[in-house]
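User: Hi! I'm working on a homework problem where we have to compare a predicted structure to a textbook description. Could you give me the structure for the chain below?
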Amino acid sequence: MAGAELSALEVEAIDLFVAATRLLGVPRSIGEIYGLLFMAAEPMTFDQLVSRLRISKGSVSQGLKALRAFGAVRVSYVPGDRRDHYRAETDLKSLVSGFINGQVVPHLENGQGRLGRLRVLAEGLGEGLAPEQRGRLEKLEYWHHRARTLAPLAGKLLDLP
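Assistant: Happy to help. Predicted structure tokens:
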């Protein structure tokens, strides 16, 4: 089943979101799916996404799963159709909050444990720990503390008028 060609508007939007996903280090297909859904006038089905983007079902499935976890895509009800239809979330606060809660916070929580293990290893070295290494460990702890402080503020900044 061949999908309709992408319009120039859709291509540009997709390209914009693909560039953003590169910056965030997530798969290209996530940017492609979100870009197409962002410009879609109506919610789209899984099969429509596969057909229009000409990417694999596996890529669309994984991309939709990630986008739903970020809160960037939601399922919409279409009367008379039992299939799931997907619509892009376009509220910036919801997008940032979803990304922070789905990606940044878990990474920071994991980082807390890793920093604890680094501290134990450094303490085990005692005098064998070079001053430069001690300074770098303190820098890592500072960076982590700043990130944990700033992550929640990013969402709050979006409340500004």
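For your comparison, note the following. The chain has a mean pLDDT of 87. The CA atoms of residues 14 and 35 lie 4 Å apart. Good luck with the assignment!
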